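S1.2 Input.
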Amino acid sequence: MEARPDALAPYDAILLVSFGGPEGPDEVLPFLRRVTAGRGIPDERLVEVGRHYALFGGRSPINDANRALIADLRARLDARGIDVPIAWGNRNSSPFLADAAAELADGGARRVLALLTSVWSSWSSCRQYRENLADAFPAELGIEVDKVRPYGPTPAFGEPAAQLVLAAVRDALTRYPAQDVHVLHVTHSIPLSMDETSGPGDGPGHLYTTQQRQVAAGIHERISAELGVEVEGELSFCSRSGPPSQPWLEPDVGDRIAQLAAAGTRCVIVHPIGFVSDHMEVVYDLDTEAAAVAQDAGVEMIRVPTVGTHPAFHEGLVDLLLERAAHARGEDAGPLVWPAGADVRPDVCAPGCCPNLRADRPALCGADR
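S1.3 Output.
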């Protein structure tokens, strides 16, 4: 997308919004307490979860990934002649969203464009961040906040994901026939009720899984077109954290790997479709736990990289920032969509979209605030 120096007008700053993660052993337990606040999870259970971080020096990779992303976005904006500041705020760790809001206010920002590192539609992956933004940017701060729409079904995510999966399939086909290869597109499990209510309040729901299945289908169409073979694939899930009595999305990726191995699959390609960077749900749930299941089951596991370091992802994010700015100016600029026909969300979330099923809380960037 072509750019000019004022291409991000009316916005005078960009805000990267992310989940956050601990950067040292002393931060692990406080971080997990913030993540699970209000859910009554005892510290004993949190200490057990914290042992996952201990395998990686008590540190999550997510903040370093965000620093690298900001640096690359800065370089790409500069290359297009766009000089706007980029702030960064997390939900659960420093730098917190409230700190980013204060930084932006001190810098004189009056209209800010938020870019989430969470790309799909559901309460936890979209609306909850909108609630966090409402907390961090009260009206008296005098800053208007818009955000980039959920961008999983766009070229920014879909194109690099397709390229990365295609490379993994090519690799697998050097050793196995197509019928012995299976792709598991892995995303974060959420409660069934959250998936059922994801999307507009007057819609059919299940937008969280629908979007990801649409992108996965687009990836398999690319595999078929470029390699001339059909490789089976499906959506699977990781990181379930709710009580056993609460139904969450299944099948678990580890369980599915074991089932596929028992049915004769010889190579499983694990694609983290639910994530943009290698944070704990990837480096522990996939690279550690799922990899151990694959080894025990006697199948080769190929883990596809996340899109976060792919140049097409970074360039696509800049295009999405420009698209949102053009829409804010009343210009017709899209929408960008990948694959064709995927469910594209509007810039401003509709009333009742991806509702909070536990509490009625205000949220920015939506028609029902």
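S1.4 Remarks. The radius of gyration is 20 Å.
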